[in-house]
Amino acid sequence: MEILNTAAALQARTETWRREGKRIGLVPTMGALHEGHLQLVRAAAQECEVVVVSIFVNPTQFNNPDDFRLYPRLPEADAALLDPAGCTALFLPSVEEMYPQPTVLRFDFGPLERVMEGEHRPGHFNGVATVVSKLFHLSRPHRAYFGQKDFQQVAVVRQLVQDLSFDLDLVAYPTIREADGLAMSSRNRRLDAPARAMAPRLYQALQLAETLVCEKAVSPAEVKAAAAGFLAEEPAIALEYLAVVDAQTLQPLTEWQPGHPVALCLAAHLGGVRLIDNIVVN
Ligand SMILES: Nc1ncnc2c1ncn2[C@@H]1O[C@H](COP(=O)(O)OP(=O)(O)OP(=O)(O)O)[C@@H](O)[C@H]1O
Ligand SMILES: CC(C)(CO)[C@@H](O)C(=O)[O-]
Ligand code: BAL
């Protein structure tokens, strides 16, 4: 596995691979890798001759300076995990390399970003779209791999790919979970023992909501109230939002739409750490 630190080096290597007729898979990450990331890399390695993994804690997508400062950074350990997973090249740029001067780009994804993460993290998807666009331009992947754990991010990137005519296939990979159901996440490393012990409740709340959605005997508002009530039993969990939305449009549901998949999405704070999770009910 080679390590590339500059945009020019990434561009030059991927151009060569393209000329050689190799399929390029890109897995964008912010590092502190876990099994969820590694499964994306392994999937890319099965489908592409070349796998580029980027690790970049992107400042423009953080609305909370402490969250940015405390985000786990483990480049050496990450590099050791990537090689055996099938990564060909690790792109590890500095902030100055990605943003030689402040970016003036502004993306507006309309209703897609007025809800959930977009509503609660102002500017977040502008930063995500900016850095993902730069990564797509620099590496020109045939396939780009994202996790469903960041459900709204997948919808925003799908819109980005369509609107800017990026010539690539977007792969949305299922959420990988710990044995107790907690969605794997780099921020899980920041949970202390009591917070880690209660963290599976987030997925349990979503499963409770899923059961109610499948029964269709109660309204979306009642599903939301039941899942939020379950989480409220644990005072150390501060629910930021729990949304029952149309899985395509991401707009909140006031009534069930037959034939439309439903996404149940939440964000919550435990012991000073903010986590997200979701379930899609078809
Ligand atoms: N548990 C998981 N299962 C599948 N994909 C995942 C999982 N966790 C993260 N990913 C995906 O990996 C890519 C990189 O994510 P990122 O580096 O932000 O990790 P993360 O674990 O989501 O961290 P955090 O949520 O704490 O920022 C994203 O496309 C993300 O959706
Ligand atoms: C896609 C991404 C790497 C952009 O910084 C980030 O949002 C993430 O890790 O999900
Ligand atoms: N995985 C999403 C990146 C973020 O929380 O900023």
TrEMBL record:
Main localisation: cytoplasm
CDD domains found in the cross-reference section: PanC
Binding site for beta-alanine: 61
Catalytic-site annotation from UniProt: 37 (proton donor)
Broadest EC class assigned to this enzyme: ligase
Positions that bind ATP: 30-37, 147-150, 176, 184-187
Keywords: ATP-binding, Cytoplasm, Ligase, Nucleotide-binding, Pantothenate biosynthesis
Protein name as annotated: Pantothenate synthetase
Organism: Hymenobacter swuensis DY53
Gene: panC
GO molecular function: ATP binding; pantoate-beta-alanine ligase activity
Origin superkingdom: Bacteria
SUPFAM superfamilies: Nucleotidylyl transferase
Remarks, miscellaneous: The reaction proceeds by a bi uni uni bi ping pong mechanism.
Gene Ontology cellular component annotations, sorted alphabetically: cytosol
Record EC number: 6.3.2.1
Catalytic activity: (R)-pantoate + beta-alanine + ATP = (R)-pantothenate + AMP + diphosphate + H(+)
Record function comment: Catalyzes the condensation of pantoate with beta-alanine in an ATP-dependent reaction via a pantoyl-adenylate intermediate.
Annotated family: Belongs to the pantothenate synthetase family.
Location of the protein in the cell: Cytoplasm
Quaternary assembly: Homodimer.
PANTHER family on file: CYTIDYLATE KINASE/PANTOATE-BETA-ALANINE LIGASE, PANTOATE--BETA-ALANINE LIGASE
Residues that coordinate or bind (R)-pantoate: 61, 153
Single GO BP term: pantothenate biosynthetic process
